[in-house]
Amino acid sequence: MGPAGYVSMEDGCVGGFVQRGAAAAGDEVSIVNMGGEGAESDDTRATEASVRGFWKAYRHYMDG
Fold first, then answer.
1. Which of 48, 26, 22 is nearest to 37 (CA)?
2. Under a CB-based contact definition with an 8 Å cutoff, are residues 12 and 1 in contact?
3. What stretches of 4-48 show up as alpha helix (H) in DSSP?
4. DSSP class of residue 26?
5. C-alpha to C-alpha distance for 56 and 54, rounded to whole angstroms
């Protein structure tokens, strides 16, 4: 899993939970917002700011 091919045990386990839940509710639709939409820099590198910034730019360029 992931672009580098690495995944922790906990992350892999959560993916399995999501897959089983989605299979059991095939006619349902949901969105999981993972803590906001901001892409501002922070004092620590342990944030999703760079990932969010990448996907915001990607969506911008793909739309236009």
1. 48
2. yes
3. 9-24
4. T
5. 6
- Hey, is 6 helix, strand or coil? coil
Q: Which residue is associated with the tokens 């006619």?
A: 27
HSE at residue 33, side-chain half, CA atoms within 13 A, is: 4
Residue 32 in contact with residue 47, Cβ under 8 Å? no
Whole-prediction pTM value? 0.39
Both tokens of 11, joined, read 């992350």
Counted residue by residue, the chain has a size of 64
Report the pLDDT value the prediction gives residue 10, as an integer from 0 to 100: 67
Condensed to tens digits (0 to 9), the pLDDT of residues 9-43 reads 667 777 788 888 888 887 887 766 666 667 777 77
Q: Do 35 and 48 contact (CB within 8 A), yes or no?
A: yes
